[in-house]
Amino acid sequence: MDFDVGAVKAALAGQRMTWSVEYVAETGSTNEDLVQMARAEIPEGAVLVCGHQAAGRGRQGRQWLDRPGQDLLFSVLLRPNLPARDYGMLSLLAAVAVVEALNELTGGEFGAKWPNDIVISGRKVGGILLAANATAGYAIIGIGINVLGAADSLPDGLNQPASTVHEATGVEIRREELLAAILGKLGKLYEAVADEGWQALLSDYRQIDTVVGSQVKLVRGQEAVTGMAQRIDETGRLVIAGPDGRIVADAGDVHLVE
Predict the structure, then answer these.
(1) Tell me, which fold does domain 5-208 have in CATH?
(2) What is the rounded radius of gyration, in angstroms, for the C-alpha atoms of the chain?
(3) Most buried among 92, 177, 194, 209, using CB within 10 Å?
């Protein structure tokens, strides 16, 4: 299924943030491609969209399996004027952009499961993968969303319940429309953080959070701990009340405990 880059560019015309959108039918990984471009010093705002990733990756090195023509797969290059400690919070910024775009286009109630999943009714429809190098001054945000088709068309062996935007909401949106909406939100949020700091963005993220107030299991490498998710702190970390005291996590997999 073809992808209409011209429609995306037309929808983004006149925005303060300049996005340079390119599409390829297939590649290994849009994140890896943009890392190479970042090293070649291309300016921020580059966006690479693909129809199929042969070597797509999620968090913890897991394989990301897609359905050509039905999923939205893209990466963006940013060159943030931010302290190195703030680069990780770009994942939260991207989550807000994706959730707000999906909710506006579908009328659904999508949310974010810390640190990088996009969910609705407890099922994952998308994920975010950040590849950042603060020393070199770039951040790549990779985003994958199950847009079209039924949930039973998704690959077998997924590590959590999953769905598609269409199945979850009954709304069939074009991938081009969704990409333009996400980039529009992402640009405005990115500029707001640069101008005003993170306070408003963190407030927005807390509004879409689906973890705080729930019993969770945090998995970090070989370590797993269960506790109550208490809050997202001012640096975007998840604070958990564990059996042996407070845990402040800046990475890891979070699973809701029934």
Answers:
(1) BirA Bifunctional Protein; domain 2 (3.30.930)
(2) 17
(3) 92
Whether this model's pTM surpasses 0.85: yes
Residue 63 has a pLDDT of: 58
CATH number of 215-256: 2.30.30.100
* Cα–Cα separations (whole angstroms), residue 92 to 7, 22, 43, 76, 233: 27, 24, 22, 15, 12
Asked if 47 contacts 21 with a C-beta cutoff of 8 angstroms, the reply is yes
pLDDT along the chain (258 residues), means of 10: 90 93 94 94 96 68 70 97 94 98 98 96 95 96 94 71 94 97 98 96 98 94 92 96 92 88
Beta-carbon contacts of residue 135 (< 8 Å; ≥ 6 apart):
84
Q: Is 133 exposed, middle or buried (0-12, 13-18, 19+ CB in 10 A)?
A: middle
Please tell me the distance from the alpha carbon of residue 137 to that of residue 135, in angstroms, as a whole number: 5
Task: Give the model's pLDDT for residue 56.
Answer: 56
Rounded distance between C-alpha atoms, residue 173 and residue 181, angstroms: 11
Question: CB-side exposure of 13: number of CA atoms within 13 Å?
Answer: 6
